[in-house]
Amino acid sequence: MKIIVCVKQVPDTATKIIIKEGSRKITTNQVQFILNPYDEYAVEEALRIKEKKEGTEVEVITIGPDRAQEAIKTALAMGADRAHHIQDDVFNGSDSFVIASILSKVIGSMEYDLILCGKQAVDDDAFFVGQSLAETLGIPHVPVITQLNFSEDYHTATVKRQVEGGSEIIKVSMPALFTCQKDLNTPRLPTMKGIMSVKKKEIIKLDLAGVGMEKNQVGEEGSLVKTLSLSLPPERSGGKILEGTEEETAKELVQLLREEAKVV
Is residue 32 classed as helix, strand or coil in its secondary structure? Predict the structure, then answer.
């Protein structure tokens, strides 16, 4: 069985974001970057399948600058077998549609039985790439899965996914693509042996020519969504402490909600 896991390097959610003055980009020199947390669930699930089914190979693929190799190395240290690193400056500014298009070009020429992605990246929260990739490849897909089981011959998969107010069970034929949610598993930590083994594992690098796309199909030029501006949310004002009896504070609270907050 051949499994492809799409991963992304993102800023740590604990990092303080600073926007470059007069630009649509963040300052990255003081930002701690990590493997997207939802992608960790995808890598872990692939590795669990590998442990159950003999002969399974797990390959990770990412798009990003030089530093994105750290995300790849994390996945390899966890136990993935090899990786593709798609890197070219002309990819900068690509929206989710272009990212899915690039991935489909590369994955479309590969052998695979299953593709796993995180349900979304925690930097842009677009929730788009996995589903778009599956549609481009023309394979079944189910998003936000929390359970994955296969038939004895691995020709079909049964998944549980989150829906509003509950969950649903879906049976699909393989190959298929699933996006992974946190209740699916608990990602393992790389062992020292796994970290040391990364040096021996293959990382295939591809640029624009290697992907087989034209310059006008990628970056901002090829994107359907363009970022016009980037700004931090306004700072919250200080709260108010109301003093007095319950009747007095309740009356004052309603007055403040109506006249200042204008929510009632």
Answer: coil
C-alpha gyration radius of the chain = 22
Q: Confirm if 145 and 181 have CB atoms less than 8 A apart.
A: yes
pTM above 0.85, yes or no: yes
- Report in angstroms the alpha-carbon separations of 129 from 103, 121, 124, 175: 9, 9, 11, 17
Q: Return the closest-CA partner of residue 105 out of 249, 246, 187, 222.
A: 222
Output the six-digit token pair for 142: 């189910």
> Domain 2-222 belongs to what topology?
Rossmann fold (3.40.50)
* CB within 8 Å of 126: residues ≥ 6 apart: 96, 120
Q: Where are the domains of the chain?
A: 2-222, 234-264
Spacing of C-alpha 175 from chain mean position: 20
Residues 164, 145 contacting (CB under 8 angstroms): no
Residue 217: other Cβ atoms inside 10 A: 18
- Nearest Cα residue to 116 out of 194, 41, 204, 206: 41
pLDDT in tens, 147-201: 999 999 999 999 999 888 889 999 999 999 999 999 999 999 999 999 999 999 9
